[in-house]
């Protein structure tokens, strides 16, 4: 499908005007993705790929993405140290083994923790900014060049102190949790402003290869899988409202393990969209779809994803049938292009030929 046509479909997804769901694929079994550009393995690592090498790999990736079946848009962003990026800018240690990234808790409580403000000369930021500048200057016309997806303030705090300490502090030092979260909110906004000063592009952003109109971002709050509705109301509600209000299109990544908190996202009026990734230990897809439909009724666009966790044919058909197609994006993990084409063919029969 033509790139511009894909962008327009994604705009309609955010406006709730689609006549059929968006359908994309994560293809695992054919033509495995080449090794991604190497970012710094730790804050003091100087062995990361230089900007020109990284950009050449990303641009080659965008060309491959353009040839894939389905509705996902080709996306170019710098993903150095992944979800550890914001905590690392704030002062956390982290490690990257090439497969996953994790923060090393500081061993301090939220009351003792110091959050480093944004420092444009920090080597980690300079490495990221140089690659983003090179990416923005590469002039790739058939891909969305945007910012990395960042952790939200409370997930960054979780990375800095660790889940056990944050859980204790939510009960014993709630004011300290809120103070540190506010400091990380300011850092998030400062980083976002610096990214957009580099990009300077009015056409939008991308996250999980979904086009996001305007000054927008995908962000994550995986801690929603570790807390209940009470902690959501006490700590997450105001944070999510403020962060979403800062964006023209606010898109949050969540896990089905946090479905009780996902239900409460209907109350965040400034939030535009939610991605729900199904976790291996449940809950059921029926329950996930129920929450997704409730979010759609509240005016939010919803992406249903199954990253490497397979669905049965009956479950895929449930995703095609039950949610409101006007605000639905489905990303399926499949092993082959032929399997992707099979689902596209079935979707065409159900919704028509506009693919």
Give a brief rundown of this model:
This protein has 355 residues and is α/β, with parallel strands linked by helices.
Describe what this molecule looks like in 3D.
- The structure is a single chain.
- With 355 residues, the protein is α/β, with parallel strands linked by helices.
- It has one domain: TIM Barrel (Alpha-Beta Barrel).
- Helices cover 43% and strands 15% of the residues.
- It has twelve helices and 13 strands.
- The strands form four sheets. The protein has a seven-stranded parallel beta sheet, sandwiched between helices. Strands 2-5 form a two-stranded parallel sheet. Strands 3-4 form a two-stranded antiparallel sheet.
- Helix 5 packs across helix 6 and helix 5 crosses helix 7.
- It is globular and about 60 Å long.
- The protein starts with a helix and ends with a helix.
- The model has no long low-confidence stretch (mean pLDDT 90).
User: Outline, from the CA principal axes?
Assistant: globular
Q: Element order, helices and strands?
A: HEHEHEEHEEHHHEEEHEHEHEHEH
State the CATH topology.
TIM Barrel
Integer-rounded radius of gyration? 20 Å
Instruction: Give me the CATH architecture, please.
Output: Alpha-Beta Barrel
Low-confidence stretches: none
- Strand order across the biggest sheet? 1-13-12-11-10-9-6
How many domains would you count in the coordinates?
1
Fraction in helix:
40-55%
Instruction: Tell me the total number of β-strands.
Output: 13
Mean pLDDT: 90
**Continuous helix count:** 12
Q: What is the CATH C-level name?
A: Alpha Beta
